[in-house]
Specification:
By secondary structure, the protein is an alpha/beta fold. It has two domains: 23-78; 83-206, Trna Endonuclease, Chain: A, domain 1 (3-Layer(aba) Sandwich), CATH 3.40.1350. 32% of the residues lie in helices and 15% in strands. It has six helices and nine strands, in the order H-H-H-H-E-E-E-E-E-H-E-E-E-H-E. It has helices spanning 31-39, 43-55, 66-78, 82-94, 143-152, 191-199, and strands at 104-106, 117-119, 123-125, 129-134, 138-139, 156-158, 171-176, 188-189, 204-206. The strands form three sheets. Strands 3-4-7-9 form a four-stranded mixed β-sheet. Strands 2-1-6 form a three-stranded antiparallel β-sheet, covered by helices on one side. Helix 1 (31-39) crosses helix 3 and helix 2 (43-55) packs across helix 3 (66-78). The longest helix is centred in the N-terminal third of the chain and has 13 residues, at 43-55. 28% of the residues are buried.
Length: 208
């Protein structure tokens, strides 16, 4: 079964010629890849090489699948799927609705004293969940992730307010890459971060 590619949304000629375009794509329409090549020179060669050396024979069985492969990779890189689609999938998967993206000030203590960091979580609902959407190769327990835990622990206020969020989110969820379509590696979530998520009762969802 081949990967389905969404209808072209970029106004690009059916076949674009540029210096270094791989011969395997000669005469083929790859508008998304062409748009990405304009931003990131050499990406076409890299995607074709990866198709021929890694992914052919997995989900992709015949030479003609190369167009589906490079277009899907380019669409991901260009952000055509976007954060909004991933959040929608998360809502469908978890049954959580009414999510928002508030601006929050995060402190080191529940007394909300001293310096603070401003964060805008991708997923938020009081008394329910805080979460982030990350379309990256690797994800560690960095400052942003630690602040998500701090928000879960009640160490945050809405921007412009001086009192803690009345009902902090009960868990911290992550939405990251999947690799089901064999076009990209799934996100590697470090064990310390995975432990921190699970300790809140949260989960790592591979939905991008």
């Amino acid at each position: 079964m081949k990967v389905e590619i969404a209808p072209n949304t970029i106004n690009t000629p059916a076949s674009v010629s540029y210096n270094g375009r791989p011969s395997e794509l000669s005469g083929k329409s790859t508008p998304k890849l062409d748009a990405l090549e304009m931003q990131e020179s050499g990406v076409s060669k890299r995607y074709v090489h990866e198709f021929l050396t890694v992914y052919k024979g997995c989900r992709y069985q015949v030479p003609g699948d190369i167009v589906a492969y490079v277009e899907h990779r380019a669409a991901r890189k260009l952000g055509m799927k976007g954060e909004g689609e991933s959040i929608k999938k998360y809502e469908e998967e978890t049954g959580v609705s009414g999510l928002s993206k508030p601006t929050l000030n995060v402190y080191d203590t529940i007394r909300l004293t001293g310096e603070y960091r401003t964060r805008i979580p991708d997923i938020f609902k009081e008394d329910v969940v805080i979460g982030d959407v990350k379309d990256v190769k690797t994800l560690s327990y960095d400052a942003q992730m630690r602040d998500n835990i701090a928000i879960h622990e009640g160490k945050a206020s809405y921007d412009g307010q001086t009192t803690p969020i009345s009902k902090p989110p009960k868990k911290f969820d992550l939405v990251v890459r999947d690799s089901k379509d064999k076009t990209a590696e799934s996100t590697h979530v470090s064990q310390p971060l995975r432990d921190a998520v699970e300790n809140t009762g949260g989960e790592v969802y591979e939905l991008i």
